[in-house]
Amino acid sequence: MKTISTTAAPAAIGPYSQAVEANGFVFASGQLPINPLTGQFPEGGVKEQTRQSLLNAQAILREAGLELKNVVKTTVFLASMDDFAAMNEVYSSFFSEPFPARSAVAVKTLPKGALVEIECIAARP
Q1: Distance from the CA of 17 to the CA of which of 65, 83, 117, 119 falls in 20 to 30 A?
Q2: Is 57 helix (H, G, I), strand (E, B) or coil?
Q3: Tens digits of per-residue pLDDT, 52-108?
Q4: Which residues contact residue 46 at a Cβ distance below 8 angstroms, ignoring those fewer than 6 apart?
Q5: Residue 98 burial class via C-beta count within 10 angstroms: exposed 0-12, middle 13-18, buried 19 and up
Q6: What pLDDT was estimated at residue 32?
Q7: What share of the chain is helix, strand, coil (3-state, %, to 5)?
Q8: Comparing C-alpha atoms, which of 54, 52, 60, 8 is closest to residue 34?
Q9: Percent of the chain with pLDDT over 70
């Protein structure tokens, strides 16, 4: 097992790694929409937060030598399912066919009051 860490994404804020690689898979922890340069959420709503969460995931994968096209599974956590369409609009601009498998669920609350958190699993080619 190998841990993956980059300053191009927010540091882990607890006892976990940004990502772990095992058996040719990279498991990226859920990415809050924190701008790693400012430590803040982007201004706006779920679209801007979705974009930042995916940029954070992308930075972690790049550190592992992978890209979003290597993602085989994502999980999207939303503070409100009312934001699904807006999240999906931005999400679809980051991925192309063949799309990764995905789960999207509404949760009661997310850390720091985020509107979205996204985790992913990528596979080495």
Answers
A1: 83
A2: helix
A3: 999 999 999 999 999 999 999 999 999 999 999 999 999 999 999 999 999 999 999
A4: 78, 83, 86, 87, 115, 116
A5: exposed
A6: 98
A7: 30, 30, 40
A8: 52
A9: 100
HSE value, Cβ hemisphere, 13 Å, CA-based, for 107: 15
Query: What residues have CB less than 8 Å from 23, skipping those under 6 apart?
Result: none
Cα distances (Å, whole numbers) of residue 53 to 24, 84, 91, 112, 114: 23, 15, 10, 14, 10
- Of 39, 51, 41, which is closest to residue 89 (Cα–Cα)? 51
**How many angstroms separate the Cα of 66 from the Cα of each of 31, 57, 58?**
17, 11, 8
pLDDT of residue 13 exceeding 90, the answer is no
Pairwise CA distance, residues 82 & 71, whole Å: 25
3-state class (DSSP) for residue 33: coil
DSSP string, 74-89: EEEEES-GGGHHHHHH
Q: Could you tell me if 96 and 36 are in contact, meaning their C-beta atoms sit under 8 angstroms apart?
A: no
